[in-house]
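Table S2 (continued). Query chain:
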Amino acid sequence: ADKLEIEPLSTSDLQSVENQAILQQLKRFISSDEIWDPEAFQDALSEHVHGRFAELMVYGTQLPMSATDALREDVAKTLVRIRLLRLQAQTTSIRYLLDEAQQRGDIESMRNFGSNIDQYVRERSHLEQKQPKIGEILFDRGGHRRNGVRLR
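Corresponding output:
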């Protein structure tokens, strides 16, 4: 996230309340000094998400082994794609609200909605610029030009 200049994964990136609860607990776990133990982690979760956590663990075991770099790149690409989709949906919703405010002549709401749309457009632009370059940014792929020589 730092290299891509984006915010790390947050609960607002996830739609499912169960996934949000798992991510919150995972963030708490990561910030602690505990050694990874799936059973202890599950015990720390609310009971209502145990089934979802088990599904995710089973799904993870069915995936082919991936190199760490490839996994990081896939996660970054997925995060950017999720955020772009969310921003697109938010922009559409705000545009409807802006139209309604215009019909009512509500100047204050029009300013606020316009400001929100501007912010979403800036965020989308930033993500769209980073999206095709994720591998290069994360792992310095593609070489760099220094003194007219391409380094690989």
